[in-house]
Amino acid sequence: MAGSFWSSSHYQQWILDRQDLCRERHYDLTILTEDEYQKIMMLFANFIQALGEQLKFRQQVIATATVYFKRFYARNSLKCIDPWLMAPTCAFLASKVEEFGVISNSRLMTTCQNIVKNKFSHAYNGEYPYRTQHVLECEFYLLEMMDCCLIMYHPYRPLVKFCADLNCEADLLPVAWKMVNDCLRTDAPLLYPPYLIALSCLHLASIIKQKDIKQWCAELNVDNDKCMEVTRMMVSLYELWKTYDEKKEIQAILAKMPKPSPSRPPSEAPNLQDGSSQQQQNQQQQMSSGVS
User: Fold this and answer.
1) Cβ 40 vs Cβ 125: under 8 Å
2) CA distance 73 to 187
3) What is the 3-state secondary structure (H, E, C) of 159-174?
4) Do residues 121 and 91 make contact, with C-beta atoms less than 8 angstroms apart?
5) How far, in Å, CA of 156 to CA of 179, rounded?
6) Is the pLDDT assigned to residue 221 strictly greater than 60?
7) Exposed, middle or buried, 92 (CB in 10 Å: 0-12/13-18/19+)?
């Protein structure tokens, strides 16, 4: 593991440029609007959150899984792998990376099926189709795409240190902590270092709690412009939430979403030779029945 964020693969390979991010998403954004794309990302962040809570994950494991998910689709179209498969795969990998412990394969899939049926039936009609072998296969695609850059730095630790320095753990930490969780629904974890996200959430929390931290902020040696960019992303997210009804809107958005082709998992793709041999067998059976 890298000794610091600045020497880690997170900083050196996975703090992306906004223009690069837009370019990678160009295909999806010819089909979906930016708002629709964000709503899809929000849906699957919520799915990973619900899955992690049901499996008793720590919040850091959930955050790691969510960022893995966002990293994959930052470099790939939504049509590459079904997000309903990628989401539990990210949770499965994150639980190992964050040393949560090995999850029972059967428990993971049973939990997915139950959550889709009970909490996300408004977004997915029918039975959850994927099984353990699909997750294990998908995990290899995820590892390859991320070049095995698995160590993740999150805003939680710098946030706790900032609040301790301000002596405001009781007032601001709970509100800012929730905002860091909300920030996983934005692109901020792909674009900005964790400490900037922590500062932005702390700034918003101070406004909500009407606590003046301007003097403390003025003494920090940080890029205030980037900090304000994160703040604007958070404000935009909360503005979207005011008018967005996921249960009413998400099915129409998912219907537009580019689908994997073939839609079934690679391990279930039909074999042409098997298909032709099966056709020959059917013809022979028809001929023999005709003769008799």
Assistant:
1) no
2) 11
3) HHHHHHHHCCCCCCHH
4) no
5) 10
6) yes
7) buried
- The dihedral over CA atoms of 112, 113, 119, 125, expressed in degrees to the nearest 10, equals 130
In which band, very low, low, confident or very high, does the pLDDT at 231 lie, cut at 50, 70 and 90? Answer: very high
pLDDT tens column, 241-272: 999 989 899 999 999 898 886 544 444 443 43
Q: What is the 3-state secondary structure (H, E, C) of 74-108?
A: HHCCCCCCCHHHHHHHHHHHHHHHCCCCCCCHHHH
Apex 289 CA angle, 288 and 291, nearest 5: 65
- Burial string for 53-77 (b: 16+ CB within 10 Å, else e) reads ebbebebbbbbbbbbbbbbbbbebe
- pLDDT tens digits along 33-66: 999 999 999 999 999 999 999 999 999 999 999 9
What pTM was computed for the model?
0.84
Torsions phi, psi of 2, nearest 5?
-65, 145
3 state SS of 58 = coil
Residue 137: pLDDT above 60?
yes
Cα gap 32→42, rounded to integer Å: 14
Average the pLDDT over 177-198 and give the result: 94
